[in-house]
Specification:
heterotrimer; A mainly alpha; B alpha/beta; C mainly alpha; A: mainly alpha; MetI-like fold; about 85% helix; C: mainly alpha; 11 helices; about 80% helix; globular
Chain lengths: ~260, ~270, ~260
Amino acid sequence: MTRRALLGLRSPLLAIAGVLAALIAWQLWAERSDPFYVPTTTEIFGAAWSLWRDPDFLSDAAESLERLAAGFLIGSAIGIGVGLLMGSSSRVRRALEPLVDLLRSTPPIAIAPALLIIAGFGNGMRVPLIAFGVCFPVLLNTVDGVRAVSSEVRDTASMLHIGRLDRTVRIYFPAALPSIVTGLRIAISVALVLVVVAEFVGEGGGLGGYLEVAAARSEFPEVYACILFLGLIGYVLNRFFVLVERHLLAWHYGAVGEQPA
Amino acid sequence: MNSQPEESPVLRVERLGKRYATDGTFALEDVTFDVREGELLAVVGPSGCGKTTLLRILCGLTKPTAGAVLLDGRPIVGPPREVSLVFQDYSRSLFPWLTVLRNVMFPLRGSGLSKEGKIAQAEAVLREMGLNDVGTKYPWQLSGGMQQRVAIARALVSHPEVLVLDEPFASVDALTRAELQDVLLRVHSTREGRAATVVHVTHDIDEAVYLADRVLVLSPPPGRVVDTIGVGLPRPREQTSTRSSAEFLTVRNEIHTLIASENALRSSLSADR
Amino acid sequence: MNAERARYAGERVNVSGWLVVVLVALAAELAIPGLNLEDTVARPSQALTTLVSELRAGPLRDEIGATLSAYLQGLAIAIAVGVVAGVAIGSSRTLLETSSGVIEFLRPVPAVALIPLATYAMGFDTEMRRFLVAYAAVWPILFNTLYGVRGVDRMLYDVARTSGASRLGVLVRVTLPASLPSIATGIRISASLALLVCVTVEYWTQTAGLGAYMHEQYGAIRYDEVYAAVLLTALIGYVVNVVLRSTERRALFWVGEERRAA
């Protein structure tokens, strides 16, 4: 998506000013208002700073990231694999379409209790949950990508007598890559949400677990700080994908004459 | 012309018909013609006459609903290895994620050549196309004319028996078109026997006459063979001298008249309904 | 004409696809007792019959109502706020640039992370659930509206203004319709996200709704009921999806291509 091109931000100054204004406004409001659950900006940043230096918190973060990575990789692999299959064969696509439709509209939380029953409270429940949520955006975008392959490319593949598997891997997969990467970007934010869900529903641990505990102990600056860290992780992951896109898909942007967001 | 009618043709199209399943209309009806060894056959006709459908059937990409195509006497089942196709839209047929060299090398997969051998063969055909230093570039970094040369190079790299082109010069400007026409003529003249066989589909009658040994004229839909006109112009051909010669104008006008009268015939038929 | 209608009807009923669904259900039906999984996984038939009897009994119906009301209300709020804010920000360059920093940082925060906090701020009633649903749903809608507005062809504005439309008129009669495809995509993404958040909140806080029901049944080791709830939630999600898609198709019949994301 040509996000920057559309938004066309002239300079970061206004954006930074906006952020500062928001932080100051929050500070003022928090100081004057009563609710105990609204810490001031300074308190929040103070908590964030000490959490950043706290090895226990960092290992919680690492735990969450591990689960996220595992679920994301498994879900993406399945999504891409099945997506390539469905995209390249209309028979397979029609056969699997209702099933995929049913599964993808199921909110992952719905399968959480079932996973709890089957796999208990640990990662056996968390990683499949994340993978389940990740696989569908990736699958759908993969299917779209393969279907969008031009008829000229398909005909070339037919005429060059490329075997089924070869065709899928060497032609459909690269051709669909722009679409697949879009799906992966969506999936990574889904994964982040589901890590938190999984940790809430499971036995805790990770950042979700920390959040629960801190809230239970009414340590509100820490709660907000943890939330901010989660947002930061989400932001970094997204930017990481933009970088990946830029490198992996340099050919695509050259071909269509755009710049990635 | 350098082919004898008594020799068996490379391709024989017999009573070919293609009927659309969706609405029952005929794209092609009772089309019969030969493609002779080593000839450059142009196919012309108005839009919608089924030129592209005919091409797709020749390349084994579509099955006819009637009749057959025989390659060396055997009916075609699926895309034959001996036939290569060049598309009109080069930007959608070349793989954007591969460099020019890799694009041209692609058909050589499974040929048993070593990597160096494949590179050498691809570079040779690129040089023949006049593309000397573009191997490491990506197709979209090249101009339209150069991209189409790459597409032709890719089609030629595996030494096909029949080169088929689907309105290949329609998407480039007039000057580039003239250049590419001459490129095609050079390809045709530097090859011998079967390897020189070309089927060139175009809507441009002048182009057809300039390039071809024979011109196959199709009618408005449903496409039938109106006539096959022999083009007796001497080779090598040249953009200015050939095109201004009297014989050129004669053949060209003959074809124009044929098509115009077919059009008139069709509209009077449909007016009667 | 007839061929066209026949083709359309063929598109509607995907026989082979639904057959696959039935086959999968049958396979599960047989495999579960076969592999001795009956203690942990309910057979599809069992889940279905339990669901039916639970629905008849009554309490489950109330829970469905509770979930749906929080969900739909939250979604409605999100649409209203998201579209208005998106149009406002999208139309004003200054506003866009100033708020972009804040939005970029708030956006990746998962709404579910706010659950513990929200319970303090709003207690455990419907208002809290509604707020969280709305908060989660507003971002995709806001962003997609924003992109939609920014992406509107400048020429359309010029045509509208020279035909004498006021600024508000341009907004309502040009900007909004032209941004509708983007907005629709945003709503579709939000709809599934919002349902997830809603049921997660209910599960975690054990207040009301399907999530609470699930948690309760799990705690009581009534696994058949748990699977019945899984089935129910899946069906609700599916219905929501189908309704959205057909509404979108009808409202946006003039759009050339549809893109699917999450």
